[in-house]
Amino acid sequence: MEWLIIIVLMLLVISPMLWLRPSSSQRRLGKLRDEAIKAGAKVKLGKPPLHEASSSMPCYRWLYPPQRPGPHFLLVRNAEASESLKEFRPGWRWRVEPLRPLPDAVDARLGELLTRLPEDALVIESDRDALTLWWWESQGGERFTGYLDDFSFLCQQLAGRPDRPAPRQVGFGGRQ
Asked: Which superkingdom is the protein from (predicted)?
């Protein structure tokens, strides 16, 4: 009878520790996010730029240097886009097209990247601050590292290409 009480007490002590242990999917997401952060991306949850988005979605942001803002554009996967939007590449449409055409190297690299992204990658967004991937994190860290060079290249090439120049500060007495 004493052994039975000891076993029950041990189970009562051990069971909360098992509940706190991360699941395999939580461990996978942790590794994926760690890989992205090591590569310079900022990972957060936010409301995606989709019309009927009701919940938060993970986004991975590659920041442009503050003194070199990026262009504004928004690419959306066909499943989330209207047929009336202009197609960029098969499966992707412009919701907001950049005011200036993308350089040829950027256009080619972005088009190639879009063909390789998983189906749950829904939006590629660029604004003055960052290049952002909105997706549901279906892949592991080792597979995601195959996209990191492309995103780094795009971020470097798009930095300093804002759609609108920053306003100039006007000084007094000929000084700026």
From this structure: Bacteria
